[in-house]
Specification:
Layout: H1 16-23, H2 29-124
């Protein structure tokens, strides 16, 4: 058998770390410090990622605030424009109604005057009066 494949002469019930601790070689402290180092690295990585997340969240909040302010300004401008357009439409409608009433009343007066003229002509010519319908 080659020397690389020989079995260990240590009793099988003891683990490597136990045997190293008994021998006083200091191997028992290395895994603990290695674990602590890995935990510290993980903590640093988590802190860095947390910092990046905070930066991204703060940037998103600022962008959202900016968008909301922009939308508020757009809505206010649209509302002012809408109110102006509706006001102009109401003024146009008011002018149309006043014009219509003036026209109707004007025609009514002219028709009344026409009836009076027709009656005078009928009397002048001694014609029988027309019956009211």
């Amino acid at each position: 058998m080659s020397p690389a494949f020989r079995r260990s002469t240590a009793p099988p019930e003891k683990g490597i770390l136990q045997r190293a601790a008994e021998a006083g070689s200091g191997l028992s402290e290395e895994p603990e410090s290695l674990v602590l180092e890995l935990l510290r690295n993980i903590r640093a990585d988590v802190a860095r990622v947390d910092g990046k997340i905070d930066t991204v969240v703060n940037a998103a909040k600022a962008e959202l605030r900016s968008e909301i302010q922009s939308l508020r300004a757009d809505v206010a401008a649209d509302f002012v424009t809408f109110r102006k357009e509706v006001g102009e439409q109401i003024a146009g409608l008011r002018r149309s109604v006043v014009g219509y009433h003036s026209a109707v009343l004007g025609h009514g007066v002219l028709i009344g005057e026409l009836e009076a003229r027709v009656r005078r002509i009928e009397r002048h010519l001694s014609l029988p009066e027309m019956e009211a319908r």
